[in-house]
Structures are given as structure tokens and as C-alpha cells.
Amino acid sequence: MSEQPTETRTPPQVPVIHARGLTRCYGDRAVVDGIDLDIARGEVFGLLGPNGAGKTTTILMMLGLTEISSGEMSVLGFNPAREPLKVKRRVGYLPDAVGFYDQLTATENLAYTGKLMGLARAERARRIEQALWRAGLTEVASKRVATFSRGMRQRLGLAEIIMKRAEIAVLDEPTSGLDPQATQEFLGMIGELKAEGITVLLSSHMLDQVQRICDRVSLFRAGHIVLMGAVPELAVKVLGAGFVVEVEAEGLGLARRLAMIPGVTHVETLSVNRFRMTAERDVRPDAARAVVAVDGSLRRLSVDEPSLEAIYTRYFQDLPAGGARHAA
Ligand SMILES: Nc1ncnc2c1ncn2[C@@H]1O[C@H](COP(=O)(O)OP(=O)(O)OP(=O)(O)O)[C@@H](O)[C@H]1O
């Protein structure tokens, strides 16, 4: 195989994952029902939603692992239904239960994948060594995978993605069952992938983790994407507020100044010299400048970031009983 993923990279402005009206039916039931998606290169994109909402089915369609009933989908410019091998070569997939050969060592497992990819022996050895090192597995490289904990298997999955030089990493519940330290390390590694320009799709129920590492998230419900965007945007939509910034400062006409800051939707005067601002973004630097502009003195500035947990909970609480609400 002589294909070099680096030579075929899609230009940055073209979404690396594009779907329109994507649908998957089992019998007469649509489990993914007309979803639209555009994911940019280098984005960390979260897929959230209750069990059975259609996240894994969407991922499987992306990878050419399940049929697309109707709609369009392209991954790195390829149609996964017609060109699954081209997609597979460029996309790393870490399913919930990673399938490695238990009787082989970590190195041997990666060597097996490397051979399937058609990598020459020297190149294979170089990439394996580098990938194991990046995943923190160098010391256990010659241990059989049967002896690995779940955390180590997950890292080996990441090592495989690194070795493949995948342009997209698709991670399905990667941190479930990991202890807090292993989780932190794993999230750190996802951050490193992003820093290299790799696009990451993360399906997870761990809302705090999703919030920490994702640029945008999508909320699936009954086969639809019902919400999509950056957390502050979703907070404005669902909670009616994004960031809440509190300012304690003296200064004449400060409340009026604060209200003029772009992105501020509301300013409440809590008491003399104490203000609570609701904003679409973190406006603390602007608030500090506003205090200086009125020749005031700043005593305290704090921000409450919107939480994905609160958005998720409120969204489902606000649904009318048995009601369907599916506009992204
Ligand atoms: N092969 C299949 N045949 C019939 N129905 C299926 C099949 N695979 C999935 N489904 C159904 O499709 C729906 C969506 O499943 P999917 O696995 O995509 O959900 P999910 O959002 O990934 O859930 P989870 O959070 O539990 O992983 C579920 O109702 C599931 O039962």
C-alpha cells in the first residue's frame, strides 16, 4: 500500500466529516433520522445523549461499518459506504471494547496492524516505538496484552491510532471504567492529538470530561441531533444564560458601561458596587477595562462557566411529557 495520508489531506476549510439527512433504519424504524453534521479539521467534537439515541450507529456509518439507509456522508472526502477501506486507513477507531490479540504483546499487536497497513519493516518499527512511547507504554511493550488493565488497553488503542497517523480519531466511551488518574492521562493524550491537528470525535456520558476537552458538542435524542454547538452557545439556548460574571467595583456609571460590553445580555445590580452580568462569553477582561475606563477600583471579579451537566439536565427536564423536540 503506497497511499500517504499526509499527501491527501483535505484543505482546512472543507469539513473533514460532512453529513446531510443521514438516516439508518432497522426495519421500518429510523434509529438515526436525518442528521446534518459538519466537523472541521482539528475539532474535538462530542457526541452525547441517552442510551440508544443513535450515537454509535452514526459512528458506524461514518466508518463504513453499517449501511446508510439514506442521506449523504463524506469522511475526508470519501464516501464511507462506497470507499470504506480509504476511510479506514485514515480514521482511527477506538470502540468501547478494543479488540487486541491477548496472547500477543503490545508491540506484536501494533506490528500486526502495521503489516496490514503495508508499512515496511523499518518504518513499522520506528512508528511502533514512537507510538508506544507517546501512549506511555514503552515499559510494557513486550508484555502480553492479556495482562493489561482496561486503562492500558485503551492506551494501546490510542497508540494504534498514533501509529496509523490517523487524521481522525473516533473514540467511543474511551474513559468509562478508568480510574481518575488513568482518565486524566487519557484526556491529556486526547489534547495532544488535537494539538497535532487530528480531529477527534468523542462519544461519552461523562459530561464534565466532554465539556473540558470538546470544542463543540452534539446532543442526540431518538435518532436526531437536538442541540449542537459550543457549550456557552448551548447554555444561552437552553438555560437562557451563558457566563455569569460578578463584578465588585466602585466607579461612576459602571452599570451602564458594563451593559455596553459586546456579548453582555443583562446586568443586574446586586447591591452598591456589586453587579452580576449575564454574557455569551467570558467578559472578565472587558469588565476590568470598563472599571478602568470609569476611573473606578476593582475589588473582585468572578465567573461561573455554564455547565454541560446543567444544560443536559435542563434540556430533558423541559421536554413535554412524551414530546419530541428536535431542532438543532
Ligand atoms: N443491528 C441492529 N438491529 C436493530 N436495532 C439496532 C441495531 N443496532 C442498533 N440498534 C438500535 O438502534 C438504536 C440506536 O443505537 P445506538 O447504539 O446507535 O445508540 P447509542 O446512542 O450509541 O447508545 P449507547 O449510549 O447505549 O451506546 C437503539 O435503539 C438500538 O437498539
What does this structure look like?
Helix 8 (231-239) packs parallel to helix 11. This protein has 328 residues and is an alpha/beta fold. The protein has a six-stranded mixed sheet with strand order 5-6-7-3-8-9, sandwiched between helices. It is built from eleven helices and 13 strands. The chain has helices at 55-62, 84-90, 106-116, 121-134, 150-164, 180-195, 207-213, 231-239, 254-259, 284-293, 308-318, and strands spanning 17-26, 29-39, 44-48, 70-75, 91-94, 168-172, 199-203, 216-221, 224-229, 243-250, 264-271, 274-279, 297-304. The protein has two domains: 5-229, P-loop containing nucleotide triphosphate hydrolases (Rossmann fold, 3-Layer(aba) Sandwich); 234-308, 2-Layer Sandwich (Alpha-Beta Plaits). The longest helix is centred in the middle third of the chain and has 16 residues, at 180-195. It binds adenosine-5'-triphosphate (ATP). Residues 26, 31, 49, 51-57, 220 line the site of adenosine-5'-triphosphate.
Summarize this, please?
This protein has 328 residues and is α/β, with parallel strands linked by helices.
Question: What brief labels describe this structure?
Answer:
transport; 2 domains; Alpha-Beta Plaits; Rossmann fold; alpha/beta; 328 residues; six-stranded mixed β-sheet; 35% helix; single chain; binds adenosine-5'-triphosphate; ATP binding; disordered N terminus; four-stranded antiparallel β-sheet
